[in-house]
């Protein structure tokens, strides 16, 4: 008689066998189908013709036009299936509809052109699987992508006709006879679809013209399909009503998170909890639903807002992720959603009451500040509401001109605006130096550097932007941070959040005596990457002011999602851009769908230290 453990173990084997026989779980089918779609698409494009098969002998009896059509259809269907594969993996309904419609065409092309019974059967089997598991493909599409696709089809079609007409006329010595303009246009139209038109050529020029026209047709189909089935990238927009509600939540609970005010970026969307007492702000980038910081509002209502966020992600098949949440926020996210968390870095926070320039640790900062002051620089630290409109406009223009990059950087820890009337509580620190007798003033007068702080509850502020004139003396940022910290008591500010330092603990531990080879290697890699992303320089800049470090985390679903989340975060922060040419960029989109839990009626990135 086996003991209970043996009996339990022996019972597991048949269960595993039964699970294997049942095949993948329904929720795993989109991934399986997407992979199969990729393989069949490749087969439609690159598999050779089976000239020695019986099907080949039968197909040779068909008219040549049918064979040409099958060849074009095979390549086009293969390209489209490759484009649809990612949408199928992400459960997109429109991708499912398109795949079900394309697979029979691909099966016929496999039979008539590739002469492959196996290819035909595989296409039909995949279509059957798609129909069997159709309920798994319910993710909502982009409501505007179909119009972009239609516009692209019309524009590309017109361009293809014009270019095709030039191609048809590019071999005048090889054209048979003297075809009319209508016959040439007819030849272009047939050629775009893979057929031979009425214009005849000598010396093999018909192959060159035919392949060129077919390539134009494939390009039109490929770009149209890309616009129709690409992942949704909504142009998020914070409505005035949403912004007003967020400001009310920040007025009541804004002291808890130093990143709370950055939820008011107007290129973010927002979902509220069913009670309306909490909200999560986000942006969708490359199929990643990217939130930043902690939820805004009452901690007790966070789970409701998080549930709405996750439901929105499931409805659109977006990858949920959170960048830069606090330890408390990470605990709530992981507990409520089953997501995982990884320490991303540390936020530098200075308590104003403890800040002083005296002591050996502050010697370098103290000497730099005194040297710059002796050079004739003066500082002013004021609330934005206390500045006049002309001075605010000069500061805005100077900050834009000193940016140094084509795009505004920042997402999770950047507000993206200066001097907005709604942000009157923001603090602006400026450095000034009058021009000498022999020197002319710059385009912004005596203004040489700007720091912008946003409110952190009633008694704190968070550094949002650092900009300086490149011709100014080094140390402008240190000068203004010290000036802001010294002026903080008069402004009623007790805490100041400085920059965020990625992987700060690894950099700090890796340079200590006794650090192991793995930690030293990790630090060496971070130092190497700092040539482009200022990881080490930003950490060392923050450390000058002897702050306390508060860890920040990234929350994610699966480890395999981290590369996608990292790329999406770099896009959101402005370090990477895959933008289309300006003429092809999308316009504004409709507002995001409200959370299903409640249909509402009304609807700081890495700063550069140098």
Topology:
Elements lengths: L3 H19 L6 H18 L7 H6 L4 H26 L3 H22 L2 H16 L12 H24 L12 H12 L12 H25 L10 H14 L15 E4 L5 E8 L2 E5 L3 E2 L4 H15 L2 E7 L1 H11 L2 E12 L11 H12 L3 E6 L5 H13 L25 E6 L14 E9 L4 E9 L7 H16 L3 E8 L1 H7 L6 H17 L1 H9 L4 E9 L5 H12 L37
Parallel strand pairs: 3-5, 10-11
Antiparallel strand pairs: 1-2, 2-3, 2-4, 5-12, 6-11, 6-12, 7-8, 8-9, 9-10
Helix pairs in contact: 2-4, 2-6, 4-5, 4-9, 5-6, 7-8, 7-9, 11-12, 13-15, 16-17
Give a short synopsis of this structure.
The chain has 19 helices and twelve strands. The chain is of the alpha+beta class and 610 residues long.
Helix content: 40-55%
Extract low-pLDDT stretches.
1-13, 16-21, 55-66, 580-610
How many domains comprise the coordinates? 4
Structural class by sheet pairing and helices: alpha+beta
Outline:
elongated
Ends distance: 76 Å
Describe this structure in words.
With 610 residues, the protein is of the alpha+beta class. The chain is built from 19 helices and twelve strands. The chain folds into four domains: 26-52 and 62-141; 143-232; 240-349 and 504-602, no CATH class; 350-498, Aminopeptidase (3-Layer(aba) Sandwich). Strands 1, 2, 3, 4, 5, 6, 7, 8, 9, 10, 11 and 12 form a twelve-stranded mixed sheet that branches. A hairpin with a 4-residue loop joins strand 9 and strand 10. Helix 4 (64-89) runs parallel beside helix 9 (205-229) and helix 7 runs antiparallel to helix 9 (205-229). The protein is elongated. Mean pLDDT is 78; it is low at 1-13, 16-21, 55-66 and 580-610.
Question: Which characteristics define this entry?
Answer:
single chain, 610 residues, alpha+beta, twelve-stranded mixed β-sheet, 12 strands, disordered N terminus, disordered C terminus
């Amino acid at each position: 008689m086996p003991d209970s453990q043996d009996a339990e173990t022996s019972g597991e084997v048949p269960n595993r066998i039964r699970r294997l026989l049942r095949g993948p779980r329904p929720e795993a089918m989109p991934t399986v189908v997407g992979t199969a779609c990729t393989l069949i698409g490749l087969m439609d494009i690159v598999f050779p013709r089976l000239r020695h098969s019986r099907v080949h002998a039968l197909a040779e009896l068909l008219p040549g036009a049918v064979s040409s059509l099958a060849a074009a259809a095979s390549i086009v269907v293969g390209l489209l299936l490759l484009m649809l594969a990612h949408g199928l993996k992400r459960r997109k309904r429109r991708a499912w509809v398109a795949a079900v419609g394309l697979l029979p065409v691909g099966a016929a092309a496999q039979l008539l052109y590739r002469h492959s019974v196996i290819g035909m059967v595989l296409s039909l089997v995949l279509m059957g699987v798609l129909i069997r598991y159709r309920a798994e493909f319910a993710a909502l599409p982009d409501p505007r992508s179909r119009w972009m696709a239609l516009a692209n089809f019309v524009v590309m079609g017109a361009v293809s006709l014009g270019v095709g007409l030039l191609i048809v006329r590019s071999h005048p010595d090889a054209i048979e006879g003297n075809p009319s303009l209508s016959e040439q246009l007819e030849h272009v139209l047939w050629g775009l679809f893979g057929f031979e038109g009425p214009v005849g050529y000598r010396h093999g020029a018909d192959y060159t013209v035919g392949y060129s026209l077919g390539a134009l047709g494939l390009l039109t189909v490929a770009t149209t399909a890309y616009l129709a089935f690409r992942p949704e990238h909504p142009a998020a927009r914070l409505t005035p009503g949403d912004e007003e509600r967020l400001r009310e939540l920040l007025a009541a609970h804004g002291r808890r998170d130093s990143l709370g005010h950055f939820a008011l970026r107007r290129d973010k969307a927002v979902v509220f909890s069913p009670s309306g007492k909490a909200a999560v702000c986000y942006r969708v980038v490359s199929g990643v639903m990217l939130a930043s910081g902690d939820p805004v509002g009452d901690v007790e209502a966070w789970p409701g807002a998080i549930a709405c966020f996750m439901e929105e992600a499931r409805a659109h098949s977006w990858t949920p992720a959170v960048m830069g949440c606090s330890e408390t926020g990470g605990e709530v996210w992981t507990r409520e959603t089953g997501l995982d968390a990884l320490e991303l870095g540390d936020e530098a926070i200075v308590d104003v009451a403890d800040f002083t320039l005296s002591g050996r640790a502050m010697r370098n900062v103290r000497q730099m500040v005194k040297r710059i002051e002796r050079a004739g620089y003066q500082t002013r630290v004021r609330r934005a509401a206390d500045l006049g409109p002309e001075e605010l406009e000069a500061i805005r223009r100077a900050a834009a001109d000193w940016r140094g990059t084509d795009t505004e950087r920042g997402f999770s820890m950047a507000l993206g605006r200066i001097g907005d009337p709604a942000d009157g509580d923001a603090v602006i620190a400026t450095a000034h130096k009058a021009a000498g007798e022999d020197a002319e003033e710059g385009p912004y007068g005596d203004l040489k550097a700007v720091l912008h702080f946003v409110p952190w509850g009633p008694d704190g502020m968070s550094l949002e932007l650092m900009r300086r004139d490149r011709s100014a003396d080094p140390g402008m940022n240190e000068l203004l941070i010290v000036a802001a910290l010294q002026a903080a008591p008069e402004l009623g500010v007790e805490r100041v959040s400085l920059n965020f330092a990625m992987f700060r603990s690894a950099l700090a531990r890796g340079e200590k005596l006794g650090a192991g080879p793995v930690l030293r290697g990790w630090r060496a890699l971070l130092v190497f990457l700092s040539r482009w992303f200022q990881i080490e320089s930003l950490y060392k800049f923050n450390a000058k002011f002897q702050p306390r470090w508060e860890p920040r985390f990234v929350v994610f679903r699966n480890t395999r999602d981290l590369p996608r989340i990292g790329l999406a975060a770099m896009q959101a922060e402005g370090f990477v851009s895959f933008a289309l040419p300006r003429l092809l960029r999308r316009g504004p989109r409709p507002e995001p769908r409200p959370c299903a839990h409640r249909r509402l009626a009304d609807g700081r990135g890495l700063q550069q230290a140098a």
